[in-house]
Amino acid sequence: MQELNTRLLTLGTAGMRGVVGPGLTPGAASDFASAFATFTGEGKVLVGTDPRASSEMLRNAVSAALTGGGCEVVDGGILTAGLMHYLIPAGGYAGGILITGGHQAAGTNGLIPLAADGSYFDHLRRRELFDFYLGKHFDTVPTGRVLPSRMLDPEEVEGYWAFLERQLDVKAIRNAGLTLLADFCNGSGAAFKERFASLLGIRLIAINDTPCGTIPRDPEPRPRSGLPIRSLISPLNAAAGLVFNSDLSRMAIVSDSGEPLSEEMTYPLAEDYLRSKLPKGARVVTNVCTTRTVDDIAARYDAVVETSQVGQAWVIDRARATGAALAGEGSGCFTTAALRGFDGFLMAGILLEAIATRGPLVGQLAKLPRYEMVKQAVPSNSPNAYSLLRRMIREFGDEAEVSETDGLRFDWPDGGFLSLRLSSTEPVLRLISEAKSRALASERAWRARLAWERL
Asked: Which pairing describes strands 179-183 and 240-244: parallel, antiparallel, or unpaired?
């Protein structure tokens, strides 16, 4: 998608994202919301935010623009991504805008447009929305058709908890008497932690659990984000530790042995448990650079693996098109066919159900095939970067199978792969190398980096 100003303001698969102030301004947010109102037409629109300091400012700009475009604005206040994905179709909304920085660092924020079915916009809808935004072709309504905004009815939120209860074996979780550690990154999940714990009957010990504007750590769930809670697992006899981003759409896991797992393992753990509850051969979706553990588990059940481009919106789009039973990617997210989006509470509940019914995570992990992965961001400022990328085929094409679904992916007969993909929002080449050994994964990453720098 078009890059408006490197790292300051970008349009991409998740909508608009930028640095608040020099990039993402109230004016930019207002124009984006006006484009959304023009695209959607006059209807009921849900607006939710994460608790970042800039979210309220952006919410005011978004709400005013939507109202001026003839929409009935329903202010949801602080909402998780999962709540937005559920509430929009359940409440008959024409769509919604989630204002969130997600996994991005403090100082940034974003506007995610959501369709009437609660999903991300697919690429065709995104293109039309961006055309309205870039062309500044906005529909407005006269005073007599301006509708007052209102707050979200709490009963609608209660409907979400009833939905969550239907998706989980709550009785099994309650009977297990589990203790869970959770780091909410002072994000939107912290506003609902007591309700979640009460629903499942768990003992929840939370840190960074004040929904405020302070971002206490890198919001992206990674093993390093789990380090503060790993030493608490054993003394508190916790079944697991969970690390969330600020809108509760991504999750990393610390096992009951205190091991901070790669965010790549969140999806495979859920897949391995849920496969036993799904029809044989049910389709699963993942992206081109998620760990092969997902493929190995699918092979055990003769399941078809559908591959998408990188990004949560692409994953959901592919799942919708193929009727997949499961979808996810290596950023620390997965979902079922029940929800067209990623919900940390649903993910956490499924993990707790797996522990309650199958036993400790350590035992579950021991049964999974695991690989070693190297992830790097290589500077790429050349205006000819895409043509240069294709030339990388000469480096590995004779020894590995090549795919061009998103950038380049090389698959070796030994099960390892190398993914090279140019970022749409930053001037970098995303390099991911996976193999059975750390040494081999690192060696292929090193070869790729040297080859890229020689171009």
From this structure: parallel
